[in-house]
Write a structure and sequence with these properties.
Length: 273
């Protein structure tokens, strides 16, 4: 399993004049173009310590070295260095993760996800989405680790959770929310989480039910986009569904774009990690 760290630097966003709704208090809107740096990781897979990796052709194309050579890569220290460096360069930034923080190294087998949650909290993660490997030691373990050690929102808009107050019910519903709104120095940013639906058979199959019912992804995403757009300047969807499903979601909704396209607009990719 390989960790991924993507950086979008100085992305110019046009802030429109949108009206509030409900009981949201009026506020002074930012005007003109405002820069927001989005720092993104995905599939960390418990690789908190550096490890030796034999490079394939894809790795070589990323500039990590020659094909078949063995190099020292990864680790939370490297990730943290890049994150802190880019934060220092940015006027406004958010650090978001797309899930699968758990599983992939012995540290998870021994400590059940506590180190992963504590490291991400220390690195200043702003929000994450639930990945399929977060359930590898069950829903109860996921809920316990998030409740004890995380200081960031855990998102999943396309899951319907059973009532955690019901005797014997899964506790995952206590630690998840569909979206979170950030005030980034006056720039209002909504993040919506989309969890995987294709690789978790135990979501609804008894007797190993996680107390989760999958929801129709495009309809749910559009609902929250439409709900949040009048309240914020930027809407970001954080997904662990996989690239083909992400493209399908974009095709069947309005109001979101592929972040790789935005990276090309920004004109910079960082392959330091």
């Amino acid at each position: 399993m390989r960790s991924k760290l993507g950086l979008v630097v100085a992305l110019a966003l046009v802030v429109g004049s949108t009206a509030g709704c409900g009981d949201v208090s009026p506020r002074e809107r930012l005007q003109g173009q405002v820069a927001l740096t989005i720092l993104h990781t995905s599939d960390i897979h418990s690789r908190l310590l550096p490890y030796n990796l034999q490079l394939n052709h894809f790795d070589a194309q990323l500039g990590l070295g020659e094909v078949d050579s063995i190099v020292d890569v990864g680790g939370a220290a490297r990730m943290s260095y890049i994150l802190q460096r880019e934060r220092a360069r940015a006027s406004r930034s958010l650090y978001l993760d797309s899930g699968d923080v758990f599983q992939g190294a012995p540290i998870f087998n021994y400590y059940d996800g506590e180190p992963e949650m504590r490291v991400l909290s220390a690195m200043g993660l702003d929000a994450t989405v639930i990945g399929n490997h977060e359930f590898d030691k069950g829903g109860r373990n996921l809920a316990q680790q998030v409740q004890k050690w995380s200081n960031f929102p855990t998102l999943a808009a396309n899951y319907w959770f059973e009532d955690p107050s019901t005797p014997g019910a899964s506790q995952v519903g206590k630690i998840s929310q569909p979206y979170h709104i950030f005030d980034v120095d006056g720039l209002m940013v909504a993040t919506i989480g989309m969890g995987t639906l294709t690789s978790i058979t135990s979501i609804y199959e008894m007797p190993n039910s996680l107390g989760i019912t999958p929801l129709q992804t495009a309809e749910v995403a559009q609902f929250y986009i439409d709900l949040l757009r009048p309240l914020v300047d930027v809407v970001i969807v954080i997904s662990h569904m996989g690239l083909p499903h992400d493209h399908e979601l974009i095709h069947h909704t309005s109001g979101i774009r592929d972040y790789l396209v935005l990276m090309e607009v920004a004109g910079k990719r960082d392959e330091d990690y």
